[in-house]
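[step 3/7] inverse_fold.run input=structure_tokens len=123
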């Protein structure tokens, strides 16, 4: 007879938190490499705070794909944490809040409107 495995909500939170921490640590290394000036300006703690804010912002917008979350964080690194609410980025950031668009189309459209491609680097 097979034994049934039950995973409790608390255990799922531990798994999710660990996965998010691993994601954030990977983003920290990547951002330090691709945005060295901004990373130096923010410091490691500031960059990690921006990463965590980017994860929170992405999730609140219904954007959960790893690459899309990475790109939202990149946009924040380039333009500031609040880029999506600033008037000068109203056109570019509009797709992020357009829930008529599929979630996996919103970030690529935002990047295109900014004239950027995934994986862009600090100039």
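[step 3/7] decode complete -> sequence:
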């Amino acid at each position: 007879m097979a034994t049934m495995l039950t995973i409790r909500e608390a255990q799922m939170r531990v798994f999710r938190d660990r996965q998010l921490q691993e994601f954030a640590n990977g983003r920290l290394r990547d951002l330090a490499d691709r945005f060295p000036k901004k990373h130096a300006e923010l410091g490691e703690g500031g960059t990690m705070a921006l990463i965590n804010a980017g994860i929170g912002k992405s999730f609140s917008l219904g954007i959960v794909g790893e690459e899309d979350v990475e790109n939202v964080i990149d946009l924040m690194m380039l333009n500031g944490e609040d880029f999506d609410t600033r008037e000068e980025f109203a056109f570019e950031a509009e797709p992020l809040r357009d829930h008529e668009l599929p979630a996996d189309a919103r970030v690529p459209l935002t990047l295109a409107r900014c004239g950027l491609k995934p994986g862009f680097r600090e100039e």
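[step 4/7] annotate
DSSP finds five helices and no strands in the chain.
The helical segments are 9-34, 36-60, 66-79, 90-93, 103-113.
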